[in-house]
Specification:
single chain, 295 residues, alpha+beta, Uridine Diphospho-n-acetylenolpyruvylglucosamine Reductase, domain 3, Enolase-like, domain 1, 4-stranded antiparallel sheet, 13 helices, binds flavin-adenine dinucleotide
């Protein structure tokens, strides 16, 4: 199917993109186009205007400053997967980027487009939630009269394909705290065989002392709930415990109680099956993070 008719504009700066969004009701940002264009062809999205932000250089790039990794929203998955800076600062994100889709998707898809689209099956919402990423959002005048604001990943996702972004706001960058030497982070997913989208995905960041005791934990699962879900019961059960097979199995089993009742099911995997897989993917992530997977 062809998309409905739309106007095409190329923005050369963030302020021009915001101005175009603010003055054209029904306009939409185009980043890598890997979600927006399929949505338009299926007529699930019918923007009156498409604002191409691909040429805005200030929205690209990867840097580390004062213990924070900063990634421009237009940075592609391939650029993240190729970056030694990301590998050193946040290996969990570096590895996840390698596992997204296929080379075409990684070459065109952007980190900003991925999270703005907020597909529950995407990997990055879960990973950025578990590492406690902060999203920089810009908007001015127009509908919301907002300037720049920062929103944590935990507050950014509102529901399937819904975020806190107002219609005239642009996500410009993502900031991630650089992982410390004693922090172990990993993401594991049961990947859809055709697309690599997460049927169920699980991310962990564990702080571990010299005796292999967990002193702090963040865990999140995605793919099965409308937005990434943290696991406070799992986190509480891990802290203060040695990271043995038995303790990890006991803690990860508690994710069931943190999931709530709104579990997604579709033709690929039922809600019941996804629920059962959550503890298993979480265990995989912890086993890989701690090195137990190699034994
Ligand atoms: C075959 C296939 C397989 C895939 N497999 C995976 C996978 O395994 N894991 C995974 O996580 N993802 C996967 N994806 C999704 C992919 O990773 C892209 O990141 C995603 O398609 C959106 O990124 P994009 O840059 O193409 O955004 P676009 O398609 O350009 O935009 C998506 C939406 O976000 C909005 N938007 C984009 N950028 C901004 C911004 N900076 N500020 C505000 N709004 C913005 C747009 O208006 C649009 O509504 C797959 C996609 C395809 C087509």
């Amino acid at each position: 199917m062809f998309a409905t008719e739309f106007e095409y504009k190329k923005a050369s700066s963030i302020s021009e993109a915001i101005q175009l969004l603010s003055s054209n009701e029904g306009a939409k940002i185009l980043a890598g186009g890997h979600s927006l264009l399929p949505m338009m062809k299926l007529r699930l999205a019918r923007p009156t205007m498409v604002i191409d932000i691909g040429g805005i250089e200030e929205m690209r790039g990867i840097s580390v400053e004062n213990g924070t990794l900063r990634i421009g929203a237009l940075t592609t998955h391939a650029q993240i997967a190729d970056s030694h800076v990301v590998q050193e600062a946040a290996g969990i994100l570096w590895e996840t980027a390698y596992g997204i889709g296929d080379p075409q998707v990684r070459n065109r898809g952007t980190i900003g487009g991925n999270v703005s689209h907020a597909d529950p099956a995407s990997d990055l919402p879960t990973v950025l939630t578990v590492v406690d990423a902060k999203f920089t959002i810009q908007g001015q005048g127009g509908i919301t009269r907002r300037g720049s604001r920062t929103v944590s990943a935990g507050d950014f996702f509102v529901g399937p394909f819904t975020t806190v972004l107002a219609e005239n706001e642009v996500l410009t960058a993502i900031e991630i705290p650089v992982l410390a030497e004693n922090q172990k982070a990993e993401y594991a997913k049961m990947a859809h065989p055709a697309t690599s989208f997460a049927v169920v995905g699980a991310g962990v960041v564990l702080t571990v002392d010299n005796n292999n005791v967990c002193t702090a934990a963040r865990v999140a699962v995605g793919g099965l709930t409308p937005t990434p879900t943290r696991g406070p019961s799992v986190e509480a059960a891990l802290v203060g415990k040695e990271l043995t097979d038995e303790n990890i199995a006991a803690a990860t089993a508690l994710i069931d109680g943190d999931l709530g009742s709104d579990i997604l099911g579709d033709i690929f995997a039922s809600a019941e099956y996804r629920r059962a897989m959550a503890a298993i993917e979480l265990k995989h992530a912890i086993f890989h993070a701690t090195g137990l997977a190699h034994h």
